[in-house]
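Researcher: For the record, we're logging two predictions in this thread. I'll number them. Prediction 1 follows.
Model: Prediction 1, sequence and structure:
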Amino acid sequence: MRCTTEEKRHLKRRAAADKISVSELLRGALGQIKAPRRRATPQADPQLVTALSRIGTNLNQIARAVNADQAAGDMRQIEGLQLLAELIGIERQMSVLLASHTRRDADHAD
């Protein structure tokens, strides 16, 4: 396919913006393949991801315990106060994480 230097630059910019090759862009434009739509991967703080993973693990353990007791038909096994204390602890952890990352984002904005 022949094109001008400017057209070639434009094709390269569009392909780069979509994170695909120029060939993929052209095949998609010609209807040969369905042009992939790739979303940019959001960047996340690895420490935040780790902390959220720990919190998610705690929530999963609580959910499994509740579901197991419910399936066994014996919800009395679950200590209501202990469950409430765990959930409050998780809520506090999430508040601390949110506050620290909100401050960090504000510091980087300056």
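Researcher: Logged. Prediction 2.
Model: Prediction 2, sequence and structure:
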Amino acid sequence: MDDLMHNDPARVIEADRAHVWHHMLQHRALETSDPRIIVEGRGMRVWDITGKEHLDAVSGGVWTVNVGYGRERIADAVRDQLVKMCYFAGVQGSVPGARFSEALIEKMPGLSRVYFANSGSEANEKAFKMVRQISHKHHGGRKSKILYRERDYHGTTIACLSAGGQMERNAQYGPFVPEFVMVPHCLEYRAQDGLAGADYGVRAAEAIEEVILREGPDTVGALCLEPITAGGGIIVPPKGYWEKVQEICAKYDILLHIDEVVCGLGRTGTWFGYQQFGVKPDIVTMAKGVASGYAAISCCVTTEAVFEKFKDASDPMAHFRDISTFGGCASGPVAALENLHILEEEDLLANSTRMGAYLQEGLSQLMEKHALIGDVRGMGLFAGAELVADRATREPLAEKQVQAVVADCLRQGVIIGATNRSVPGFNNVLLFAPALIAGRAEIDEILAAVDGALGRVTG
């Protein structure tokens, strides 16, 4: 029966339509159109069940498949490991867990401990729990507040949405967990005070300090930020921002938690996004690119100082009393280790930097051609183009028109992304995150599709 179904696309489509609850999709649309089912991927290209080929400019739709599709060595390593030892709860160790942790920490000077889980949301939950437990154990429960930034995103659970700066993602899911407090965004293109460059960078960081002082420094335990805001519009913090943020955290004894779920493992051209800015975090979370989607894995990585706060044999409640069931699956770390080796052997971080510059240059040239593009920004193979109805006023282009650009590219066989149902009034940024194996030919194909789509949207 399975073989018959595999060879019968119509049956697969109907089974999907009848039984699968898709992510982030209004299913009314599937009453009049077929679900898109992806059946194969090689390199940067995927094929759907109808046989149509697409160039994937968003690494699996959500910025995950960093080393591209069809990597047999990762699949083979996972297969061999699962036959030998597939799973044991994380209270015990594993060979791939130990090996990958060692290899990962070598890329993260100043950090030392890796806690395994299976999704970015879960990794951030672990970090939030660590902060809260440290508050109870070492600060009498006082330093329990966690600050997060407007337009940043940290996951789908209720606690992660409580730390989410995208109001449309949060809508209808409250009430939220208390003592999560928002600080202002740092998008220079839409600067709150009309400043620019380092002046705005320092001012945007000072806005965080103002929130800390308002809440009371002795009540704030951590500041959770993306190194580059991802789904909120590809926001690269201005010069001076991260230096001032680090200074503020040290001044008030606040743990700095960097969410690298999107930027981690080479996306920006360094192993982690925070390394672009000289930041020294206390906690780093990661997922997506850790194993490039070949297995489910996330990590919450801490300094030894954070780890030591949970070591107290005299207190039976002192250790981190947490477990992630599938954090014990051996497929994650073994896939992650092979993924890391590929990134090293093929020098994909350098390629991300090189091809990212080429992508940015191409988008900037399109900006000269198309008045709809108001701003181009990004780092490495992670770029955004903000679309506007009027460059002079910077009025955002309507979300419907932005999605029309995405749909036009899809018809051309190129999959790009865009902010949607995230930031009220500002779902107007095209998103690009091609696999780190991208070459000039693939970037040219992406740019040509966007060029054509923008021309047709403007009529």
